[in-house]
Design a protein that fits this description.
Strands 1, 2, 3, 4, 5, 6 and 14 form a 7-stranded mixed sheet that branches. The protein has a 5-stranded mixed sheet with strand order 9-8-7-10-11. Helix 10 crosses helix 12. The protein has 2 domains: 209 residues, ATPase, nucleotide binding domain (Nucleotidyltransferase, domain 5, 2-Layer Sandwich); 170 residues, ATPase, nucleotide binding domain (Nucleotidyltransferase, domain 5, 2-Layer Sandwich). It starts with a helix and ends with a strand. Strand 10, helix 13 and strand 11 form a beta-alpha-beta unit. By secondary structure, the chain is of the alpha/beta class.
């Protein structure tokens, strides 16, 4: 163990670190693997994305995760088994990527794994006064470290909970250090299964910066694409473009209490999943699949835009878009319409692939845990600046 601790001490003192970030989101489409080179930390942090891959999950693996994903009642044995299986699958993917990139595991300093969220339960969701905010991700870090031979940081969200947050979104920490710009109010919008954005104020005031979930991103769209059309997603908005928005259904969906909460807030498929959709459709059983897709696309766009417009801005503002939803042309069209005065740019304008962004941010969290220096009482977005991630040693 001593040699691993000495390695951690050495890495913390180095000016640069090579870190792999792993992200598997609520869309369950696959694992994002980002090989990053970090220089410095905190406000002096810089990152270079050396390589990136998204490795899709096969349908059998997706089904195995869905057996416990966002469900109140599950087979606990299956949960326990998947905690190991997910880690083993992710480790195998990492090693395959390294072979493809011709990089040895010994040339990688750290592995930063988000894991797979299986249940997210903030207080406003569970409504149990005697219980705190909670969230659970599986894919054990010890198995990742042992299988890859790379020191691993994982389970990042628990420290955020312990510091008084909801465990999500964690994007704020990496976004603030990597992408803030003096004189520009930036909205970094990521549309994954759930949509979220980070607000970075142009005066760089850490108390004004925050990250929030806005509501569904692609989760309901992908569900309908699979259930009604037999495809994974609405490619090029083909089905949404063929439909007409049902305004009565749209209003019914937007009437959910979540949308009355102030920013910042968090949610997940536990709240906006198949049960939510079925309840909303009770009086709309005859809606065509195309009209449903059109309405859901508008629903995602309006709830994003309304959350963004709650934010008071003092500098020229700009929105940078990443995630799977950035490839949905109808959704992007609606956002441009609903956010007049907001230039909407692809995230690539900031020098990082929008598809890689989430994986890069978890690598950034690991970099901060090793090399960040924070004074007692320093805060960001109303939460204490804390080191996140449990450290797993290979031996």
């Amino acid at each position: 163990m001593k040699n691993h601790l000495e390695t951690l001490h050495r890495l913390s003192a180095q000016n640069s670190r090579r870190i792999i970030g792993l992200m598997s989101g609520t869309s369950l489409d696959g694992l994002d693997v980002a090989l990053c080179r970090f220089t410095g930390a905190g406000a002096d942090c810089r990152v270079q994305l050396e390589a990136f891959e998204t490795i899709p999950y096969d349908e059998l693996f997706r089904r195995e995760i869905r057996r416990i994903f966002a469900r109140r009642e599950i087979d606990f044995q299956h949960l326990v088994l998947l905690n190991v299986t997910v880690a083993e699958r992710h480790a195998a993917i990492v090693l395959d990527c390294l072979r493809k990139w011709k990089v040895s595991p010994a040339e990688v300093d750290l592995l930063a794994s988000h894991g797979q969220t299986v249940f997210h339960a903030p207080r406003h969701f569970h409504h149990l006064p005697d219980y705190p905010n909670a969230t659970l991700q599986i894919g054990d870090g010890d198995h990742l470290a042992r299988r890859t031979g790379i020191i691993t940081l994982s389970d990042f969200r628990q420290k955020h909970l312990a510091a008084g947050g909801e465990g999500a979104p964690l994007a704020l920490y990496g976004d603030y250090f990597l992408f803030s710009k003096k004189g520009e109010d930036r909205f970094l919008l990521n549309i994954g299964g759930i949509a979220n954005f980070t607000f970075l104020p142009g005066d760089l005031d850490p108390d004004k910066a925050f990250a929030t979930d806005t509501g569904p991103g692609n989760t309901l769209l992908d569900h309908v694409a699979s259930a009604r059309f037999g495809v994974a997603f609405d490619e090029d908005s083909r089905f949404a473009k063929a439909g007409t928005i049902d305004n009565e259904l749209l209003d019914r969906m937007k009437n959910h209490p979540y949308f009355q909460l102030a920013n910042p807030k968090t949610t997940g498929p536990e709240m906006f999943g198949q049960e939510f959709l079925e309840n909303c459709l009770q009086q709309h059983r005859d809606i065509s699949a195309e009209n449903l897709m059109a309405t859901l696309t508008r629903f995602t766009a309006e709830t994003i835009a309304e959350a963004v417009l709650q934010v008071e801005t003092a500098f020229p503002k700009r929105l940078y878009l990443s995630g799977g939803g950035a490839h949905n042309p109808k959704l992007v069209e609606y956002l441009r319409e609903l956010l007049p005065g907001f230039p909407v740019d692809p995230f690539e304008r900031l020098g990082i692939s929008g598809d890689a962004k989430e994986a890069v941010l978890f690598a950034a969290l690991a970099n901060e845990t090793l090399a960040g220096r924070y004074s007692e009482g320093q805060r960001l977005g109303g939460i204490p600046l804390v080191s996140m991630g449990k450290i797993s040693l290979p031996g």
